[in-house]
Amino acid sequence: MQATTKNLLKLHLVVFIYGFTAILGKLITLDAIQLVWYRMVIAFLALGFLLLIRGRRMAVSRATFFRLTGIGFIVAFHWITFFHAIKISTISVALGCLASTTLFTSLLEPALVRRPLVWLEVITGILIITGLYMIFRFEPDHIAGIITALTSAFLAALFTVLNKLMIVRNRPLVISFYEMGGGFIGITLFMLLNGIFSAGLQVPVWSDWLFLILLGVICTAYAFASSVKVMDVLSAYTVVLTINLEPIYGILMAFLFFGESELMSGGFYAGTVIILAAVFMFPVLSRKLKLSKAPEKSD
Questions:
Q1: What pLDDT, in 10s, does the model give residues 20-41?
Q2: How far apart are CA 95 and CA 22, in angstroms?
Q3: Among 57, 86, 49, 96, residue whose Cα is nearest residue 216
Q4: What share of the chain is helix, strand, coil (3-state, %, to 5)?
């Protein structure tokens, strides 16, 4: 019981760190593209160092390398759209809409993994769409931020489903290492093609460097490694349910750091509550359905 409590507290710390990512995104003065460019190279180096000191094998096949690099591109543009949504709107909008990742996952997973739709996922999706409709209706001034955040949520669902296919034969840390490197390569190519390097990179101020290191090392490399480690003790169900607290932690921290600039309309919060309620209830109902269908043990 002591080990379970310890790992549960560590998991809540990880989710708190995930929520703090949005705060750092708002505090860093760099634009979203350069912010993610720095984040990915720092995380890539930190994960590489972690793999080396643990003595883990990092070699993968050529096909796996290209697949992970491609997924890294998706991760990079997920983060770019997420941070861009924060910068053109608010943290609350970005995190509220990011909770719709569950909806996109329920649509993408049957198509990519080739499994049938589950009625509970359809109902959950309808509730999430209802919540999103309320957010759109009551926040017309944040339409650009909402659409950008929804794009980020779609990309998050896409790389999550693709990673499910990759994790069968590859270690999570190795997957993350190559994806961080792939994302860094993808953003570098994008910046080269768009003349960002020739125009001159935005020079981070000293506070940016501090926040970037926190973002790359603590919020990416450490948080990811810890979220994997706790699964040695905690069930996947507990981990998924706890991670759903990220928008709540993030929105509360946004009020703490930025005050009234993060205040939204009542309709926004009603829509966000509907989305979060759907996201929280899905694993609970799903687990109950599995238990009810499980065959009873004979005496």
A1: 999 999 999 999 999 999 999 9
A2: 8
A3: 49
A4: 85, 0, 15
